[in-house]
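#struct-queue
[09:14] JT: dropping the first one here, sequence first, then the structure tokens:
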Amino acid sequence: GGQQQRVAVARALILEPHVMLFDEPLSNLDTKLRRQMRDDIRRLQQETGITSVYVTHDQSEALSVSDSVVVMKEGGIAQIGTPEELYRKPNSAFVATFMGDANILDAVLTYDDGRASVVVEDATIPLGDIGDEFAAGNVKLAVRPEAVRLVADQSQPGLPTARIESRAYVGSAMEYTVSLNKHSLFVIMPSQEREYSVGEKVQIDFNPVGTAIINESAP
């Protein structure tokens, strides 16, 4: 498993290249081998110091092997940044959803003594100092599924109430679809935490880490 990829890399290294291009190198491998090979490629790049361009449609590969990620859209650059920047602070709905699952929500941005907060369905999310890029008022948010927390209904006053529409056990996590007024949210929670049933009412809380304001005019 992965022998073809290892041979190809070894042949390329013999030429002592200044730049190496990896074009979907792991697309025909199973999940376990993909993880092993991407770790090998990352370690090799770090040890040799060779600049490498890695082309992939797999978001986890892009995040795990890169120092800098370029997201392309219609032949142009949508955003450049570190893996953490693109995942946690996407500049558009396109980048947010390209780099993984994201809930795109309507919110209201407010400032208090320079510190920003957003209100989503009566839930207030403190964002801290985000500079002056965004004006107070209506905004769009990108919220990662793991940044949404479900709590038992009415256990925490002030949080909005939602309804479990579907659930799926995927081993290490439970995946939920919940309805929150006009929004439908995709939520990922560790499977060790309390499980909720379809039709059950829950309250929604948001983690500021994994919540970002996005620019609606960005490409």
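[09:21] JT: and here's the second one, same format:
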Amino acid sequence: GRTAKAIRTLLGASGMKVRRRFTLEIVES
């Protein structure tokens, strides 16, 4: 339903942030 879609969007957004931080750390090291 609507709630599941909202949760999925939030998880996707936070996942992108985490992934971006991960790639930055890998590039810097």
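[09:30] RK: nice, looked through the second one.
[09:31] RK: The radius of gyration is 13 Å.
[09:31] JT: good to know. The chain is about 95% helix and 0% strand.
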